[in-house]
Amino acid sequence: LTDLQDLQSKESRLSNESKILVDDTLVSWKYITENKGETIDIVCDNSGFEVFCDILLAFFLVDFKIVKKVVLHLKDLPYMVSDVMKKDVYNLLDILNKWGKDNKDVLAIANKLKNFLDSGKLELNDNEFWTYYHDYWHLSHVDKHADKSTFKTLKDVLKSFEKTKMVIFKGDLNYRKLCGDRWWPKTTKWDVAIAIYELQKFPMLSLRTCKADVMVGLNSDEVDKQLTEEYKNMKKDKDLKDEWWNSSGKWAVVCFNKN
What we know:
By secondary structure, the protein is of the alpha/beta class. The protein has a single domain, classed as Uncharacterised protein PF01937, DUF89, domain 3 (Rossmann fold, 3-Layer(aba) Sandwich), CATH 3.40.50. The protein has helices at 2-8, 10-17, 25-34, 49-63, 86-99, 104-119, 148-160, 172-178, 190-193, 221-234; strands at residues 20-23, 39-43, 69-73, 122-125, 164-170, 204-209, 252-257. Helix 5 (86-99) packs antiparallel against helix 6.
């Protein structure tokens, strides 16, 4: 509990703000609160504490009537052991119920979450598309060797996003897939890197800790040089290349595109 309090302390948050290289937090929140739309979709990444935070966000959005419904998009099979599946969400809800025996506030949250699930205000979707090898530039088409069922799956994904207020993509891999997993110049504009017709149909927010060499949205090449030098001075393994700062997990981005 002490560790969680440290992570959530004001001082900790402020000290980490400088590590957010692209920060569209305020503009995306303004869009959510000022625009129409009954649903927010969250394409989840990891289980454990991360999906716990995702569920609390969904709880807040529905309970405060910011939206009528939140859909959590999960994997039917994990790429990695940490990837979140439906069973992980249900296990987490079971844990909340157990905690609730000693804490009435936790129990109240657990009961409301169950009501949201039962009433459809919180939906768990594990469309197989999220474990396909395609990047998200393939929302409109797939290669000629793909199974015919793939086309229906992609159409299902697009149809589910037609009336969304916003799709929130979580994690490094989703960011890479949104950018086509291309080696962009780091100063490429975010809306250019995702300039695929289907990705422009809905408002989108990408939350990412930088763990790969795909990186866009920097203000200038000088920023890249500064971060390279900063990483050079902080890294413990001197065999790592200085320019690998953007795959170190030390920086993050919050990228919003209206559509």
